[in-house]
Design goal:
By secondary structure, this protein is of the alpha/beta class. The protein contains eleven helices and 24 strands. It has three domains: 36 residues; 209 residues, Rossmann fold (3-Layer(aba) Sandwich); 180 residues, 2-Layer Sandwich (Ribosomal Protein S5, domain 2). A nine-stranded mixed beta sheet has the order 6-5-7-8-4-9-10-11-12, sandwiched between helices. It has an eight-stranded mixed beta sheet with strand order 15-16-14-13-17-20-24-23. The chain has a three-stranded antiparallel beta sheet with strand order 2-1-3, with no helix packed on it. InterPro entries: AAA+_ATPase (IPR003593), DNA_repair_RadA (IPR004504), P-loop_NTPase (IPR027417), RecA_ATP-bd (IPR020588), Ribosomal_Su5_D2-typ_SF (IPR020568), Ribsml_uS5_D2-typ_fold_subgr (IPR014721), Rubredoxin_2 (IPR041166).
């Protein structure tokens, strides 16, 4: 290799840091388009410099400064693992209009209510617009400071003057740093702004919450390194046609990542929903064919959701398969299993399947409830009242066991259900499944081995 080739600056991906000797349009590591830029060749060697604090044995490191502090919103504390940690950087992302600003204004107001200084920086609205929302939701407090800024230098000046304990930036894509190439929201700008804010948060023990935009496919906008810089990544989800909202932890250095928080968004603000099960179960005055209740797990929280199905003769050559809140490919698989292993012929029928209350079911444990609802609508026979079903259906028609079964049964029993249809537990020796019929928390548990036996057990099989 010639001397000229060795001294030529390399090209580096701004997303993941992948390097190449020549420019390419697509990163070979993270497959991002347009992220490879020319990197200047290093001119100085790294030398030793003074340390900020001496290294000490890990047992002598104090943990008093990193204890959880309640955010004032119990459901958010549940997702965070206990509350807000001083010096933590939290990224909250969600679709436009889902309620991110409303939730964080409530958190800021609750923090200010306990005489803790809070700074709310908005780059998307004016200060008067945020004040109007605070008046509507009851979030006006003397310890809650509000600033409308889009320049990083001005934001850092506000932090120096106010010295808050909690800092909210709404949003990180609207803040720009002078002297840095690109427009606010670009890869370089977002990376520089986030790094500066996180550096201040760590050095001054300020809990910092950054609001992030999402792309049309639901991923967080901006460089992927943004998710690596922060300590916690939260996704705020919800259907525009429903008031129900959910916060999921995608990354959490201080707690579990399998927790969810439930909220109710209304014109008066946002409030925590500690028992959301009633939103997804319809209370019928009589037995109705085509319905069944499933018990799903949202993180570590069991939730009951009602599945409804409607099967009608189709005049079309290709019958319709329409779903809402349920994976369409999963329903198609269940229909194939019902036809092959349960003798239910649906190739000349339209099938509609949906959930109640806008719930979204992605867990395979709801397969059995979907199959019972479809079979019940086909036969016109309603399942017995007070029955819940849970179990994953295999392509051979067998039922597979689900995780956290005791928690699911306890939640169903608490809400008044008296019969549960579940897959049989395998025998300790690995042989055939061992039947287990008994009572758990006052609930009768019926074990079944296949989808055919499950339909026969609840009495909805086709005559």
């Amino acid at each position: 290799m010639s001397k000229t080739a060795r001294s030529r600056p390399a090209h580096r991906c701004s997303e993941c840091g992948w390097e190449t000797s020549k420019w390419v349009g697509r990163c070979g590591e993270c497959q991002a388009w347009g992220s490879v830029v020319e990197a200047a060749a290093p001119t100085l060697r790294a030398t030793a410099s003074p340390v900020t604090s001496p290294a000490v044995p890990i047992g002598q490191v104090s943990v008093e400064d990193s204890k959880f502090r309640s955010s004032g919103v119990p459901e958010l504390d549940r997702v965070l693992g206990g509350g807000l940690v001083p010096g933590a950087a939290i990224l909250l992302a969600g679709e436009p209009g889902v309620g991110k600003s409303t939730l964080l204004l409530e958190v800021a107001a609750q923090t200010a209510r306990v005489r803790t200084r809070t700074l709310y920086v908005t780059g998307e609205e004016s200060a008067s617009q945020v004040r109007l929302r605070a008046d509507r939701t009851g979030g006006v407090h003397d310890e809650l400071f509000l600033a409308a800024e889009t320049d990083l230098g001005a934001v850092l000046s506000h932090i120096e003057q106010v010295r808050p304990t909690l800092l909210v930036i709404d949003s990180v894509q609207t803040i720009g740093a002078s002297g840095v190439e690109g427009v606010p929201g670009g890869v370089t700008q977002v990376k520089e702004v986030a790094a500066a804010l996180i550096r201040v948060a760590k050095t001054r023990n300020i809990t910092t919450v950054l609001v992030g935009h999402v792309t049309k496919d639901g991923s967080i906008a901006g460089p992927r390194v943004l998710e690596h810089l922060v300590d916690v990544v939260l996704h705020f989800e919800g259907d525009r046609n429903s008031r129900f909202r959910m916060v999921r932890a995608m990354k959490n250095r201080f707690g579990p990542i399998d927790e969810v928080g439930c909220f109710d968004l209304s014109s008066e603000g946002i409030r925590a929903v500690t028992d959301p099960t009633g939103l997804f179960v319809e209370h019928h005055s009589s037995q109705v064919p085509g319905t069944c209740v499933a018990v799903t797990m949202e993180g570590r929280r069991p939730m009951l959701a009602e599945v409804q199905a409607l099967v009608t003769p189709s005049p079309l050559e290709r019958p319709r398969r329409t779903t809402s809140g349920i994976d369409g490919s999963r329903v198609a698989m269940i229909l194939a299993v019902l036809q092959q292993h349960a003798g239910i012929r649906l190739h000349q029928h339209d099938v509609f399947a949906s959930t109640v209350g806008g719930a979204r079911i992605t867990e395979p444990a709801a397969d059995l409830a979907i199959a019972i609802a479809i079979a019940s609508s086909t036969s016109g026979i309603a399942p017995p009242k007070g029955v819940v079903a849970m179990g994953e259906i295999g392509l051979a028609g067998e039922l597979r066991r689900v995780r956290d079964l005791p928690q699911r049964l306890a939640e169903a029993a608490r809400l008044g259900f008296r019969v549960a249809v579940v897959p049989s537990e395998p025998s300790p020796a690995g042989g055939e499944a061992a039947p287990r019929r008994g009572a758990v928390d006052g609930m009768q548990v019926l074990d079944v081995t296949s989808v055919r036996s499950a339909l026969r057990t609840v009495g909805v099989s086709t005559p």
